């Protein structure tokens, strides 16, 4: 009986350490995003800046498209992904000196914000929406 209890305690300890490790990993990633870069501003600060500067440029149609494009992202991470993507879209819009976020700007920013490992899901989603990817092929990272 004592061996069973000891084994359960050991298993519980490993489970607890594993869960704390996973949580710590995500906390550390967020910490690194908040860490200032060479210019004194963090990646998250830039995201927030681009979102704030372009907030007035979004129309409902583009907001709905963004919602649809991030729908494959697990709900737990969807808000974080949406903020990162919206920040990149805002950056593209400001860089191109646009007055409004169009579908072209949205798709370009979305592709640039999407990690290489997730680009196949992005392609699938764009195909489902019947969006021609030919003008954006140069933005995809080679496999």
Automatic annotation (TrEMBL):
Which organism is this protein's natural source? Lentibacillus halophilus
The family database entries (InterPro entries) matched by this protein are listed as: YneK (IPR020203)
Instruction: Give the UniProt keywords, A-Z.
Output: Membrane, Transmembrane, Transmembrane helix
- Please name the Pfam families in this protein's record: DUF2621 (PF11084)
- Annotated membrane-spanning segments are 6-28
Q: Does the keyword Transmembrane helix apply?
A: yes
Q: What is this protein called?
A: DUF2621 domain-containing protein
């Amino acid at each position: 009986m004592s061996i069973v209890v000891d084994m359960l305690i050991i298993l519980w300890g490993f489970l607890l350490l594993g869960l704390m490790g996973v949580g710590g990993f995500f906390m550390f990633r967020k910490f690194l995003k908040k860490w200032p870069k060479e210019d004194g501003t963090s990646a998250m600060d830039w995201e927030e800046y681009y979102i704030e500067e372009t907030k007035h440029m979004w129309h409902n149609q583009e907001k709905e498209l963004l919602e649809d494009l991030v729908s494959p992202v697990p709900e737990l991470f969807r808000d974080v992904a949406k903020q990162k993507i919206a920040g990149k879209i805002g950056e593209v819009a400001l860089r191109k000196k646009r007055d409004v976020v169009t579908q072209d700007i949205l798709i370009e920013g979305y592709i640039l914000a999407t990690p290489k490992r997730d680009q196949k899901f992005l392609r699938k989603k764009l195909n489902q929406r019947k969006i021609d990817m030919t003008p954006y092929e140069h933005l995809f990272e080679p496999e």
